[in-house]
Amino acid sequence: MPEVIETQQLTKTYEGGYFARQDVHALKSLDLAIHRGEIFGYLGPNGSGKTTTIKMILGLIFPTSGTIRVMGREDIASADVRRKIGYVPEGAYYPDFLRGEEVLRFYGQLYGLGGKDLEKRIDKVIDIVGLGHARKRLVRGYSKGMRQRVGLGQALLSDPDVLILDEPTTGLDPLARKEIRDILASLRDGGKTLMISSHELLEVELISNRVAILYQGQLRTCGTIDELLTDRDTTIEASGLTPEALEKMKQAGISAEDVVNGRGLLRVPKTMSLYEAMDACRQAGLAIGSVAPRRETLEELFVRIVGTARREELASATA
Amino acid sequence: MNFFRSTWSIALYTWREGIRKKTLLGFLILSILVIFGSTFMTAFMAAPQRAVDLGESTVEADVQSKLIKDICVSAITIFGVLITIFISASVVPQEMDNKVIYTVLSKPVSRFQYLLGKFAGVQLIVLVNLLLMTLLFFAALWIRESVIPTLILWSALLTYFQFLIVSAFTFAISCTSTSSVLPTIGGLFIYITGNLTEYLNDVSARVSESTNAVDYYIGMLAYGLYRMLPNLRDFDLKDQILHLAPNDPPADAMIPQLLLAGSVYALAGYVLAYVLFRRREL
Lengths: 319, 282
What we know:
A: 6-stranded mixed beta sheet; 4-stranded antiparallel beta sheet; 13 strands; globular; B: mainly alpha
């Protein structure tokens, strides 16, 4: 079974400078494989090459070198392949003089759909994205979350195998985020493959099966959430955190976070056993509320990976 | 079937979006006001002609009629060309700005189809606006002269082909641009140059007798441009509208040749647009 999306040595260089060449390497030899039925989080700081990758997959820009395969096919500009991909761009405009269902009708016609087939498909998509109550309202009166549902709807009209979403939850309120997240999870459960590019790391962590982190056009890490978030430690919720007690904990190698009115969280490093940590707490006169294992968050992993990449870049620039 | 459905859908969307543009509406309303206004204005401008001792009322009516025709034809041409340039220059850059182009071109829609749909939508807008203005002028003249002014219809047909040429090349420039400013300037340049090609021929003829090498090359360049650029003046029947009877057929106008030339230039403009847009990075 081929990968749903696969890139090999994918490179994109923008030529710049009229007199002296100042090429911009947007993507450098990217090897990526997105499996069927997974949600793939595609992460990276601004300018790391996420949107460049997506645009190349969609045929909106062209690779300098390397190959892209979608469902095993290299002719990604063909109508057959395009039918298998749904795309939701970040912050796209949907004509506000049209009703929700009219927007979907316009996009449906672009797939060559018409008549009863199109109407049936619109009904189904409206049901999936939960726009039934507002389908006859003008997009002008839609909230940001509803517009995002229209965006999702237009991408689902051809019942594509793969959905590519650029910042699907950015700018939405928590409730709308949860609703979009639920829709995306149900699409995955229905067998679709989703590639999500986002800065909302908590959202990505909650929903993704695998993630990749990109920095300056290079893939820095890629794997399942469980594979990547291996850095675990223990936290102790404690009270009685006076300045003297905090000093003693620091000497013992335990850091404190979020200390308010003498209560806070103590972070026990991986190198220290829990018994040693409890001993140190007793000696400092702390009362222990709870002890919990803690896994590194995606945000922490992201900061660590990007931070390391930046330091490497700086070091090579100064060398 | 799918090809036409998608293309027509893009054209219709472009038209629906285009007719909501405030600038375009402004031009249209202004042109309608000018056409209406001209018929009222002439009612107060007959006094100086009374001195002419050549059958007072006939001369008066003739001058008034010419004035109305002059103002109306000018208004249709000026506002029509502004609408044409404005809309042709903006449809593609605007979709790049609001990212609609990404959602459309990620569907099974080729770039050729997309451009064809956009161009067809632009032509719908240009045609509807031109028809509105022409019908108003046609009605005013019909009421005034009591004959069906068929010459106006011939003029509208040729004016549309003039707009079609300007539109096609403005559209082509817009396919290389991210804003509508450059294509608007380009469109105005094409329109103005297209109306001045006779001067290029004059330049070429005048310097052909010169022995100066620089003059020779200027002459060659002027002649080349004269042969290459469309002569938009050929599409203008204003003089005939002013001097012939409203129901006369167009005199000396090679209408089939002009329509063919207009179509060929428009096709060349569209092909240029496609060549520029085919591998454009979006």
